[in-house]
Write a structure and sequence with these properties.
With about 240 residues, this protein is an all-alpha fold. The protein has one domain: Biosynthetic peptidoglycan transglycosylase-like (Penicillin binding protein transpeptidase fold), CATH 1.10.3810. The protein is built from eleven helices and two strands, in the order H-H-E-H-H-H-H-H-E-H-H-H-H. It has a two-stranded parallel ribbon. Helix 5 packs across helix 7. The longest helix has 26 residues. It is globular.
Length: about 240
Amino acid sequence: MSLLKKVWQKAKRIFVILFIAQLVYILILKWVFPPVTVTQLSNWIGGYGLKRDYVGWNDISTQMKLAVMASEDQLFPVHDGFDWKSIEKALKNNKKRPKRIRGASTISQQVAKNVFLWNGRSWFRKALEVYFTFMIETIWGKKRILEVYLNVAEMGKGVFGVEAASNQYFKKTAKRLGQSEAAMIAACLPNPKKYTVRPVSSAVRRRAPWIEQQMNNIAGDKEVQALLSIDKPKSSK
C-alpha cells in the first residue's frame, strides 16, 4: 500500500471517529448541560472569572424566556434555525457598509456557536455553525435550545446564564425575575461586557423599555404561548 493511500485511509478513519463523537455529544447534550464552552473558558483565562449555575426549564421565569425571544429572535418558535429574511438584509447591509458588520444570528445559531464552536468569521466556522444549528433543531427541539441558551449565554463579565445573572444583579433566583428585570438582562446580550446591567449602562437603559414593549407584543402569539407552556407546572385547584 502506498504512503498516500495509507494517509487517506487514516484520514477517513479519523473523520468517521470525529463524526460519531460529535453526534454522540449532541445527543448527550439533549439532556445534560455542556461541561464548559470555549467562550466560558476564554473568559476564565482572560481574567474575568466564571460565574454560572445551570438551572432547568421550570426554574427560569416565563418573563426571561419571553425577554430573550423579544430582544434576540422573535421568530424563534416558528423558524427552522435560520431567519432567512434577516440574513438577506444583513448581507446587503454588510456589502454596502463593510466597516459596520450587521449580524442576523438566531437563538439557535447562537447556541450552536456558544456550545460547539469559537468566535470568528471564517467560512469554515460559518459552515460548521450551519451544520450544528441544523442538528440541534432536529435533535433537541425548541424547548431544549432555549433552555441551553439561557444557561450558556454571556450576560456580563464572567457571568454566564440567567441564574448567575439574576443572583449577580438582583439577588434573586431566575425563577423570580419580573418583566423589567428580565428585559434589563436581555438588553445586555449584544455586548455583555460593554452593556452592563449593574451599574446600568446607557445602552441597557435605552434598550430595556423597548424590549418590554416587544415582550408585550409577542406574548399573545399562539406559537410563543405554546412554547412557553411546555412542562409548565399546573396550578392546583
